[in-house]
Design goal:
Elements: E1 2-5, E2 8-9, E3 17-18, E4 21-27, E5 53-59
Antiparallel strand pairs: 1-4, 2-3, 4-5
The site of zinc ion (ZN) has 8 residues, from loops.
Length: about 70
């Protein structure tokens, strides 16, 4: 299961910016992508091991706008 979070500035803090990121919840044993419905299961629906959840967090790099001065 992938959950995506948009980048945002925390309004209660002056300098904190949360980068856009994706949290992928997988089985720690086999890496199976665990659905929301299966989060409360005792066993992994794929490998049958006792379900240990692992979060893979992918930070997305914000798109950069680069201005190149080619006028010399
Ligand atoms: Zn598994």
């Amino acid at each position: 299961m992938k959950q995506r979070y948009e980048s945002k500035e925390l309004s209660d803090s002056k300098s904190s910016i949360v980068a856009a990121h994706t949290i992928d919840i997988v089985c720690d044993s086999c890496g199976f992508d665990v659905d929301e419905d299966d989060l409360n299961s005792d066993k992994c629906p794929d490998c049958g091991a006792p379900l240990e959840l692992k979060q893979n967090i992918t930070i997305e790099v914000a798109p950069l706008v680069i201005f190149v001065d080619t006028s010399g």
